[in-house]
Specification:
The protein is built from three helices and three strands. With 91 residues, it is mainly α. The protein has a single domain, classed as ATPase, nucleotide binding domain (Nucleotidyltransferase, domain 5, 2-Layer Sandwich). It has a three-stranded mixed β-sheet, covered by helices on one side. The chain is extended, with a radius of gyration of 17 Å.
């Protein structure tokens, strides 16, 4: 199950991408402020590993933009059909 959807990087600047993701996954999409998330993630993961805790800490992203678009089950179904029809394609 999907717990949350974070949209970061270049795609986060495109409102259409957030709308599509929210409607396809039928979930709220969170867009945190631009940042160095790869470096921050590596540092946070290292800090967690060194702490010895087994439970993942909750990291604060600060203020996030929230996008909620209506679900589009028919579009989701079309994506599933396309996936199934092209599953045996080779590169």
């Amino acid at each position: 199950a999907v717990n949350r959807i974070l949209l970061i990087g270049g795609a986060a600047k495109n409102p259409a991408v957030a709308q599509i993701a929210s409607s396809l996954f039928d979930r709220e999409v969170l867009i945190p402020p631009a940042g160095e998330y790869v470096a921050d993630g590596a540092a946070r993961q290292a800090a967690w590993a060194l702490s010895g805790n087994t439970d993942a800490p909750i990291w604060n992203f600060g203020e996030v933009e929230k996008v909620n678009a209506p679900a589009t089950p028919s579009v989701f179904t079309k994506y599933q059909e396309l996936r199934d029809r092209t599953a045996d394609w080779t590169r």
